[in-house]
Design a protein that fits this description.
It is a single chain. This protein is mostly beta strands and 380 residues long. It has one domain: Neuraminidase (6 Propeller), CATH 2.120.10. The chain is built from two helices and 29 strands. The strands form eight sheets. It has a four-stranded antiparallel β-sheet with strand order 5-4-3-29, with no helix packed on it. Strands 6-7-8-9 form a four-stranded antiparallel β-sheet, with no helix packed on it. A four-stranded antiparallel β-sheet has the order 10-11-12-13, with no helix packed on it. Strand 26 and strand 27 form a beta hairpin. Keywords: Membrane, Transmembrane, Transmembrane helix.
């Protein structure tokens, strides 16, 4: 190349201006790629950053993290019950692959139920495990149960959202040979980050964060009925060998209220201001007084009012601090109601949703289930 040609090309190159840089187009293209990647994300969000280098300077446009998606079943709907193999969740109906649902609970992440063989299903996925009952908190993703084996039982806490066990422990549940148990081990309650295990050796309070527990009382597995907001519902006397029907409420087993409440099963409101009790036997007669569902004010020491047009009630669930659901029996049909604990006002949310006829073979249970985690038995 001659000197003249080289000088001419150099002069022209110096006079040329760089083409304009389409920053908006580059960022938009980057955002489209980010959107495609985000569409493939199943859970959670990611922070995406588009950067363009221009002569040593960097242009950065950041996208904020997407909010965590709410759990699909946080809402507690009044018309929640199971009939046959279907779970009714308000206007939604969830059909399972089982023949019949014996018992079920609701968690924020989905329903957990026992089928006709008491096999455990999490959102209709069989776990290969079995139990007699299920326990869940008023809120959260956790469910708990007890699994029985030949020589011991194990207390289990399961996270439905993460699909994994948080706790599995045989502590307190060694079964001596040739012994017939009066009461089986049970999960007394899930209360926030604490589980309460009713074991053969006594009541354990289990910290779910550390996966460690402490024996807090040497009592029968069913001596404490439930725990909510740190308040324990326990029978009087605690050492009674069979299920008593006189209950107290308190933060410990020695500092309960002076007032005693009648009933066997117990359901505290989320803030522990109200207590609903009912007997263990769904077919018990009209007497004694504790043979039907009852409503009490724990802090006010008052007896709540129930609708007088029904012969019997079966508890469903607490919807909030003052409202609960119950099945009201009219002859051989059942209505689902909401009842306000403060005023006694009630509303029928599912009229005649089932019959009140027990199966003729053992175990004698009703064709419907309420979200308590337990079957409704004709015990005697």
């Amino acid at each position: 190349m001659t000197n003249l040609l080289r000088d001419t090309l150099t002069e022209r190159a110096d006079n040329l201006e760089p083409p304009p840089l389409d920053l908006d187009g580059i960022v938009a293209a980057g955002n489209r790629q980010i959107s495609r990647r985000r569409a493939l994300t199943v859970l959670g969000g990611a922070v995406a950053t588009a950067a363009v280098a221009v002569g040593g300077a960097t242009l950065i446009r950041s996208r904020r993290p997407q909010p965590v998606r709410p759990a699909p079943y946080v809402e507690r709907r009044a018309a929640t019950f199971a009939v046959g193999n279907k779970i009714h969740y308000g206007a939604d109906v969830i059909t399972t692959q089982s023949t019949r649902i014996n018992a079920f609970v609701q968690t924020d992440a989905g329903f957990v139920f026992l089928d006709e063989g008491n096999n455990i299903h999490v959102a209709d996925r069989a776990t290969g495990k079995g139990a007699w009952s299920l326990t869940a908190d008023h809120r959260g993703n956790l469910v708990a149960w007890v699994e029985g084996f030949n020589d011991h039982a194990e207390s289990v806490v399961y996270d439905v959202a993460e699909q994994r066990e948080l706790v599995r422990t045989p502590i307190g549940n060694a079964i001596p040979p040739n012994v017939s148990l009066a009461f089986s081990p049970t999960i007394v309650a899930l209360d926030g980050n604490t589980a309460y295990f009713g074991t053969l050796k006594g009541l354990y309070r289990w910290n779910l964060g550390t996966n460690r527990g402490d024996l807090i009382a040497n009592v029968a597995p069913n001596a404490v009925r439930t725990v909510t907001a740190g308040q324990l519902v326990y029978q009087q006397p605690l050492v009674q060998p069979i299920m008593g029907h006189t209950l107290r409420v308190g933060p410990t087993l020695t500092s309960g209220t002076r007032t005693t409440f009648t009933g066997q099963q117990a359901f505290l409101s989320p803030d522990a201001r109200y207590l609903v009790t009912q007997p263990a036997d769904a077919r018990m007669g009209d007497q004694p007084v504790w043979s039907d569902l009852q409503l009490f004010g724990v802090t006010t020491r008052t007896v709540g009012r129930l609708p007088g047009t029904y012969a019997k009630f079966l508890f469903g669930q607490w919807l909030d601090n003052t409202t609960f659901t119950a099945a009201g029996v009219r002859s051989d049909v059942v209505d689902l109601l909401t009842i306000n604990a403060e005023t006694g006002a009630h509303t029928v949310v599912a009229p005649e949703f089932s019959t009140y006829t027990f199966s003729t073979t053992a175990p004698r249970i009703l064709p419907f289930a309420m979200p308590t985690g337990a079957s409704i038995y004709d015990v005697y």
